């Protein structure tokens, strides 16, 4: 049956390949869309897994009048007392400018925030140093500063070598370290960080944290999240904002869905056009092969045999296109993901689905031509054409 | 002659094609062909001989009358049963050969058994035997495009014979061949007939008809003469006015 079905395809290779190409393009675009978006998602998820989803941020929200609220000074200590909290650290925003030198006007300061921090910030955010070292107990009260990745770039400082300094408020600070970029904490990237003790001695610091970062046991994260607001500010839990930075990344993974559906739709249109192409070619093929159909009927083929032959032929044509398309789509996905530096992930359901869809489409496209072939009057079909 | 059932029996067969006016292609055709005969049905174009071929080959149905093949009244057969009859009991040879271009001579002949539910290996061995019978044992793997006209017709004859049918119907088997090759093909048909095959050759060519043992003349949809009929011994000469092919 398959041998009989491939005869027509083998006798006209050029036509077979061109017709299959129509289906192949449709399937390839669909597989590529699914593959690229799956690869992109896999990459984001890998990123999220690496960063950890157990980081929470507590910040002051707004009070009922819509004015900025503050966190009580004892909030960090209270939060550390929650059982599943592994570590917590607070930062306090300072109202001072950070400049390359006193000769840069204050108005031209590069929008670098200044934070007073605790020395366990680095560990809690799981950050790493691009250069130098982080603040520790020993340097906490000295005029030394650590720069976030973006802040360092804006100040034109690439490394701590050679004793670089920056001018904060109205005095010089030695740069002792530069952080690597923190994917989950872009605000730290843009900041200059000094020790809390130094800040207290040099500036007029209120002890109200502007952010509290904490890591909790991953399986307890939801229950910790529920009690955080009330723990941070028992008198006004509604004035506390709690967020999870990894949520933003996860949201990004979902955003692509609409675009993906649109592209899949376009791929579907291409596939449909390919299917109609197959039906067309099969109709022509039936007209050209009247003689063959007549002979087969004379040799004892029933209408059913003839119909099956053309449906098989049409399905195989589409299957060829499907296999071609899946290969092409996988190659495109691989090349694209490789260029983006992503993990390559092509869902097997996409591959099997692509081949399956082509097969079904081919069978459906073959129905009408096959019915025409089966209806041919055998006496008419074998009649000499001269 | 024995009283065995004739291979083919037509009784007052009429075939009318609808239209305005309707075309009466066959009128009251009655004839009988016994097993082992080599018969020619001869007539000019438009005489109804093609219609008669289609009726005998069960490719077309009678309007009235009966047709029996090996005693089976095929007028009542379903499409599926007719297909079964064609695959097992009737072999066709066409003027235009109608070989399948994409496959070798051997596979073409094997196709003659495809619709009988015979295994591939059996089809192959039967095909080889049939090709050897028609003298093409050395051309089995050639595609039709690589064969001469005479060789192609031999392949077609092998395909018609391979299922050991009750009747071989040859429609203008020499129509596309030169005189010498025509003679060879006719000789082959005579040889196959001597080996026991019942063969009916449809032709417009009086010269060919004259070489075969029995002639049935058709004109205007009716049997004009039958050389086996002692009463109407119609000399072939009387057919001299019949025109050539269309």
Features of this protein?
heterodimer, A: alpha+beta, 2 domains, eleven-stranded mixed β-sheet, elongated, B: 246 residues, alpha/beta, six-stranded mixed β-sheet, 7 helices, 10 strands, disordered C terminus
Gist of the model:
Chain A is built from 13 helices and eleven strands. With 386 residues, chain A is an alpha+beta fold.
Can you describe this structure?
The complex is a heterodimer of chains A (386) and B (246). Chain A has helices at residues 2-11, 13-51, 75-80, 121-125, 149-154, 186-189, 196-202, 221-232, 245-288, 290-298, 303-340, 348-375, 378-382; strands at residues 55-60, 85-94, 98-99, 113-117, 129-132, 144-147, 165-168, 171-179, 191-195, 211-216, 240-243. Chain A has 386 residues and is an alpha+beta fold. In chain A, strands 1, 2, 3, 4, 5, 6, 7, 8, 9, 10 and 11 form an 11-stranded mixed sheet that branches. Chain B has a domain at 36-50 and 79-227: P-loop containing nucleotide triphosphate hydrolases (Rossmann fold, 3-Layer(aba) Sandwich). Chain B contains 7 helices and 10 strands. In chain B, the strands form 2 sheets. In chain B, strands 6-7-8-3-9-10 form a 6-stranded mixed sheet. A 4-stranded antiparallel sheet of chain B has the order 2-1-4-5, with helices on one face. In chain B, helix 5 (149-161) packs parallel to helix 6 (179-194). The model of chain B is unreliable at 231-235 and 240-246 (pLDDT under 50). The interface between A and B is medium-sized, with 26 and 31 residues.
């Amino acid at each position: 049956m398959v041998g009989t079905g491939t005869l027509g395809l083998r006798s006209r290779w050029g036509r077979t390949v061109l017709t299959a190409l129509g289906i192949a393009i449709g399937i390839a675009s669909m597989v590529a869309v699914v593959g690229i978006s799956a690869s992109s998602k896999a990459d984001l998820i890998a990123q999220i897994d690496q960063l950890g989803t157990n980081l929470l941020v507590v910040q002051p929200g707004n009070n009922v009048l819509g004015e900025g609220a503050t966190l009580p000074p004892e909030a960090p200590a209270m939060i550390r007392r929650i059982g599943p909290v592994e570590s917590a650290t607070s930062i306090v925003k300072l109202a001072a400018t950070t400049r390359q030198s006193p000769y840069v006007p204050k108005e031209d300061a590069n929008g670098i925030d200044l934070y007073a921090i605790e020395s366990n910030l680095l560990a809690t955010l799981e950050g790493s140093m691009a250069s130098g070292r982080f603040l520790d107990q020993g340097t906490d009260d000295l005029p030394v500063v650590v720069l976030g990745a973006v802040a360092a770039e804006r100040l034109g400082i690439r490394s701590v070598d050679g004793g670089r300094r920056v001018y904060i408020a109205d005095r010089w600070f030695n740069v002792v370290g530069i952080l690597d970029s923190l994917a989950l904490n872009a605000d730290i990237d843009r900041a200059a960080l000094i020790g809390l003790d130094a800040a207290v001695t040099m500036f007029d610091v209120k002890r109200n944290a502007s952010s509290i970062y904490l890591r909790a046991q991953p399986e307890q994260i939801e229950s910790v999240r529920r009690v955080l607001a009330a723990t941070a500010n028992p008198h006004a839990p509604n004035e506390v904002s709690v967020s999870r930075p990894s949520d933003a990344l996860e949201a990004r993974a979902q955003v692509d869905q609409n675009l993906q559906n649109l592209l899949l739709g376009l791929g579907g249109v291409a596939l449909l056009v390919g299917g109609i192409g197959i039906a067309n070619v099969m109709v022509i093929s039936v007209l050209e092969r009247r003689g063959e159909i007549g002979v087969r009927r004379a040799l004892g083929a029933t209408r059913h045999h003839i119909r099956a032959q053309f449906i098989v032929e049409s399905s195989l044509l589409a299957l060829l296109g499907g296999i071609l398309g899946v290969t092409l789509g996988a190659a495109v996905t691989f090349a694209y993901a490789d260029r983006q530096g992503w993990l390559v992930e092509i869902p097997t359901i996409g591959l099997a689905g692509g081949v399956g869809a082509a097969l079904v489409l081919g069978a459906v496209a073959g129905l009408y031509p096959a019915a025409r072939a089966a209806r041919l009057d055998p006496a008419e079909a074998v009649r000499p054409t001269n | 002659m024995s009283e065995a059932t004739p291979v083919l029996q037509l009784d007052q067969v009429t075939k009318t094609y609808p239209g305005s006016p309707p075309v009466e292609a066959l009128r009251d055709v009655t004839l009988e062909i016994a097993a082992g005969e080599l018969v020619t049905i001869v007539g000019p174009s438009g005489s109804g001989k093609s219609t008669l071929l289609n009726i005998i080959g069960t490719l077309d149905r009678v309007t009235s009358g009966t047709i029996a093949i090996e005693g089976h009244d095929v007028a009542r057969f379903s499409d599926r049963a007719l297909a079964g009859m064609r695959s097992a009991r009737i072999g066709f040879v066409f003027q235009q050969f109608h070989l399948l271009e994409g496959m070798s001579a051997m596979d073409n002949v094997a196709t003659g058994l495809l619709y009988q539910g015979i295994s591939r290996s059996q089809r192959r061995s039967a095909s080889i035997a049939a090709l050897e019978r028609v003298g093409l044992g050395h051309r089995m793997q050639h595609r039709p495009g690589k064969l001469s006209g005479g060789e192609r017709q031999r392949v077609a004859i092998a395909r018609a014979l391979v299922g050991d049918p009750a009747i071989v119907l040859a429609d203008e088997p020499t129509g596309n061949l030169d005189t010498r090759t025509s003679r060879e093909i006719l000789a082959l048909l005579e040889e196959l007939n001597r080996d026991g095959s019942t063969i009916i050759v449809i032709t417009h060519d009086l010269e060919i008809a004259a070489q075969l043992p029995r002639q049935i003349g058709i004109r205007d949809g009716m049997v004009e003469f039958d050389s086996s009929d002692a009463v109407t011994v119609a000399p072939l000469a009387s057919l001299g006015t019949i025109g050539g092919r269309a």
